[in-house]
């Protein structure tokens, strides 16, 4: 027998992930927008052609995820990231680039970008990346190279300093940091350590605050530099 109580057990549908797309090339914006618009539970709320437009997009549309091209005329992606650090509510930023690894990408990650994707990434990977970023996970293109990790490492402590930094963390936080370094998502870390995903998110926030890392990607570099991964 159906009752009013039964109805309360049905969970409401999840709100769609709100996405902004920023690229100075109209064709690139159209391509990305069409891919995301065809995916369930994703809504492209606005597009912009430069950094100034990106800041206005964030201010007026409050996207959950911003896909941001690095190389644009006027205010480029790096300057946009610097400005977004002052925003009251900033979206997760995923950098779009045609370059596999360079100093600009490393700088973007240190400025707080959630990760990066190559522009020719597979459409299914693009959709997956948006969903991961919306959940607070890092997004790294499979083509991430040792060269990029080297660029990132130059912004961080040497191996001795990194080890000292990590040693100040609790055992539980080191366990989480080790799994971040291994590229695990929050959901995977929660499963491995038998924790709730919300607890893992809290631990990740503690790690970033304690180590001064800008995001999960730079935390992963710290884990590797410290020898935490073996």
UniProtKB/TrEMBL annotation:
Residues 162-227 form the HTH luxR-type domain. The keyword DNA-binding applies. Pfam families: GerE, Response_reg. SUPFAM superfamilies: C-terminal effector domain of the bipartite response regulators, CheY-like. It comes from the Bacteria. Residues 18-134 form the Response regulatory domain. Keywords: DNA-binding, Phosphoprotein, Transcription, Transcription regulation. The modification 4-aspartylphosphate is found at residue 69. This is Response regulator.
């Amino acid at each position: 027998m159906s009752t009013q109580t039964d109805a309360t057990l049905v969970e409401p549908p999840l709100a769609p992930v709100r996405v902004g797309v920023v690229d100075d090339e109209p064709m690139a914006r159209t391509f990305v927008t069409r891919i995301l618009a065809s995916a369930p539970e994703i809504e492209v709320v606005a597009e912009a052609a430069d950094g100034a437009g990106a800041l206005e997009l964030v201010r007026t549309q409050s996207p959950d995820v911003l896909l941001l091209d690095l190389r644009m005329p006027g205010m480029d992606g790096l300057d946009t990231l610097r400005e977004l650090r002052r925003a009251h509510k900033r979206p997760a930023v995923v950098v779009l680039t045609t370059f596999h690894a360079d100093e600009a990408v490393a700088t973007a990650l240190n400025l707080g970008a959630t990760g990066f994707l190559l522009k020719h990434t597979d459409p299914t990977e693009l959709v997956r990346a948006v969903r991961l970023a919306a959940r607070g996970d890092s997004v790294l293109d499979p083509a991430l190279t040792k060269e990029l990790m080297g660029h990132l490492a130059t912004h961080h402590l040497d191996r001795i300093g990194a080890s000292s930094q990590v040693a100040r963390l609790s055992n539980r936080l080191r366990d989480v940091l080790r799994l971040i370094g291994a590229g695990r998502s929050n959901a995977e870390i929660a499963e491995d350590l038998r924790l709730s995903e919300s607890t893992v998110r809290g631990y990740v926030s503690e790690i970033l605050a304690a180590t001064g890392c800008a995001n999960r990607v730079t935390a992963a570099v710290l884990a590797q530099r410290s020898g935490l991964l073996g």
